[in-house]
Amino acid sequence: MTILSALTLAATLAAQPASTPQPLLTLKAPLAVLSLEVADTEAKQERGLMYRTALPTHSGMIFIFNRDDVVEFWMKNTLIPLDMVFVAADGQVRSVSADVPAATLDTPDDRVARVLGRAKYVIELPAGEAAGDGLRAGAQLPELAKQP
């Protein structure tokens, strides 16, 4: 590869936004197949879906935690409303926080939504999607029960 080609490739990659959607996990929900980006490190979990202005239907992010425990999300710089699905280690949906409000870049910190739940996995989807995909308390996601 020539130096010019390497520089062109590097410039192209640098110009792409860090939050380009990259579905990494396909998960069968009761009424849909979901394409989910995986947030399995602290850095990915901290960034989450910040600065996104849209999400395609049946897509979002899955947060994978080390253990099934109480987790809290602070929706700072989350520009789109979301449904948040809290899932136990055995794949059972515990609860859904529907239509968690978006925050603008100017929203004061004390007015940014906070969402609390107990989970090993948390799935974030576009607002209104969880119910349509059959994700409600008690629903089963057997594929997650097989995860380590």
Distance N terminus to C terminus? 41 Å
- CATH superfamily heading: Protein of unknown function DUF192
Tell me, what is the CATH class?
A: Mainly Beta
Strand arrangement, largest sheet? 1-2-3-6-4-5
The H/E string reads: HEEHEEEEHH
How many strand segments? 6
Q: Could you name the CATH topology?
A: Jelly Rolls
Main β sheet profile: 6 strands, mixed
Unreliable stretches (pLDDT < 50, length at least 5) are: 1-18
Strand content: 35-45%
Number of domain units: 1
Q: How would you summarize what this structure contains?
A:
The chain has 148 residues and is an alpha+beta fold.
Task: Please characterize this protein's 3D structure.
- The protein is an alpha+beta fold.
- It has one domain (20-145): Protein of unknown function DUF192 (Jelly Rolls, Sandwich), CATH 2.60.120.1140.
- The chain is 18% helix and 38% strand.
- A six-stranded mixed sheet has the order 1-2-3-6-4-5.
- Helix 2 links the parallel strand 2 (32-39) and strand 3.
